[in-house]
Amino acid sequence: MYAAFLHMLVGFPRIAGCFVLVLLLTLSPVLETAMAQKKEYRFNYFTSDDGLSQNMVDCILQDSRGFLWFGTWNGLNRFDGYDFKTFSTRDQEPGALGNNFIFDMDEDSFGNLWIGTAGGLQVYLYEEDRFRQYLHHPEDQYSISSDKVNSVLTDNEGAIWIGTDKGLNKATIVSKRGELEGMVHYPVSADGNTVSDLIIQTVYKDQSDRIWLGTNNGLGLLGMADNDITLFTFQDENEYSLSNDDVQVIMQDREGVLWIGTNSGLNRFDYPTKRFFRYYHDLSDENSLIHNSVQDISIDSNGDLVFGTLGGISVYVREEDRFFNYTYKPQVNTELNNEFVNSLLADQDGNVWIGTDRGGINQYNVHQNEFEYIVNVPGNEQSLNSPTVNSVWEDEEALWVGNAGGGLNRIGLDNGQYMHFLEDASDPYSLSNDFVTSIHRDVKGNLLLGTWGGRFEFASPGRCDGGQIWSFYE
User: Fold this and answer.
1) Residue 26 has pLDDT above 60, yes or no
2) Cα 14 from chain centroid?
């Protein structure tokens, strides 16, 4: 039953050598249920076959110019919507990328790209189209504390925060040539441990300008006044403690709530009470978190939270406190092509870009509506007469479909009912041929048809719904 939901023709995907009509389906209030329904998004895939340097995508950024950047473990990729340009150490020229293992990226106020790699901090100078790098030098107290840079964050005050496997660094970006001054290594945490004892896996600045750290030993909060680090950790006896100390990602939603992804569970943090509310995967609940290892979080243009995990993505339904999940299913374009999700980016146009471990980039758009395929069902009069569609015309009352061998089909927009017009040698007012190649309605309302019968035919406005083709011309 298609009722009055048939609104707009969208395309003709070719399936098994024939055309199948695709119609946009808009659910009526009668069919809506109290619970939100999972949307069947169509995913697009971009892999090394399309020019990506590697199918393992660890981080994603969209810059102020609209370019998308994808960091892999085999170089950096810039995507303009059509083609990929790869930057790598193989360029072997002055100003080339210093290391191919890309972990994180951020853009500064000058439009330059700061990149955390396995071989130091890199900065892409956009106007000069070259890279500059900063490395650790044991004898230089103002160098970065380690060459393994896991996270970079630039803020509105001109600072860059650098998370390494040997603690947190901060410096000031002083020019568009990527020059840094005032490198600081953060010293001591509230529990007496030096920050250099911590692996800083992510750095995040919230709406109140608090600096949060995802570490291998819990969630860190940098003190605003004394620069001490307060650590929130898992406590076995406390159900409101952090679910796991291995913190991979931190994100604040539009409501101001902080979400923390760990290697064992997702956490919603209530800052005033310092309580963590945990979410885990539950095998008995298809609307639970899809996997406990949460690698990245993004917020789509609808304001919905999207969680990237090692089992796929989970989209959070806030009103119902549950998730819609998408995972790997082979040869199905409404799911991922690889379930190991490393990175996410939701852009302002409604696209959600997903970096996977082996499937390259997956992408969908939240503004897609659900699609239904209208096909020929043998023996069912409430379907197309033939699987091959040659032509389509839509007016205020009906969708007209010209079939190859199936004549003319009319689908009422008010009730979804089918009518079929076929060649009948005993009826002078029938089609001359069942291969309808073109349909058009003229300014007088006549429906004009082209067929393989060597004739040009039309049905007048008063007769086109009555089961007859009123007249025809040779």
Assistant:
1) no
2) 25
